[in-house]
Amino acid sequence: MATLEFTKMHGCGNDYIYIVALRARPPDPSALSVKLSDRRFGVGGDGLIMLAPSSNADIRMEMYNADGSRGDMCGNGIRCLARLAFERGLVRANPMVVETDAGLKTVELRLEGRRVVGATVDMGEPILEGRDIPVNAVGRIIDYPLDVAGMRESITAVSMGNPHCVVFVADDGVFKLQDRDFAELGRKFEHHPFFPRRVNTEFISAVSRRNLRMRVWERGSGETWACGTGACAALVAAVLTNHSERTATVELRGGNLEIEWRADGADANHVFMTGDAVEVFRGEVELGADEMVPVS
Hints:
This protein is α+β, with helices and mostly antiparallel strands. It has helices at 29-37, 75-87, 173-176, 179-190, 228-240, and strands at residues 2-11, 14-20, 24-25, 47-52, 59-65, 70-71, 96-100, 103-112, 115-122, 144-148, 151-159, 163-168, 200-208, 211-218, 222-224, 247-252, 255-261, 271-275, 278-287, 293-294.
């Protein structure tokens, strides 16, 4: 039997199992994510994130959802990965550059001594062209009418490296839904034919022009307590639909994220996200002898 060391971490309650895969890695991380993410028979989490070597950045983030599907980017996950890399002495740069399937992202760690207490991530520019998000329509998808579950919804679509469907709600009804009913609604958005690669869906109540309340359904993971890319997409959508200023606090079930969509300067049009990065515990699991292979 092989022993695999892991670290359980979360950002605003969006929790993942982290593996340092610099010398050895699982040959089938998708299957391992399904196995370890199970909250009854595994470690429990929204998925698996591997800290892997990169040829063009300080480190690489490789992400798998709880159902084994590959994720392009995770805003909460990248903050935790950066903390893990820094505190283990694997990367000493701050800010550090992290390679993701959605491109290179810069993470600036907030430190108390050598301890990481949070991070700000340059999430880059939002993608607003429909075919690039992707959705089955051209042009910007802003207040777009979409029939879902027998209702006509007004949606705004944004990609932050992964596709998001943002729905503004006028009351607290969606926040009061039982988990089972919310899951049924989330799945109908996720698997709607309008979204060829499935979609993350954010339901947003604009509490004020600097405060957004959010409940999220993530493709491949279900309802999560937070979604960093979703919070960024929500702020962008709120600005485009005149619900918000370009800087706002996004309230999630697991905590708050500070989001800014910059209008000018060297980083004009980039979205910045600031939030926590928390280590929960470290542990070991036993794997079959063939479940880890050397990194080539």
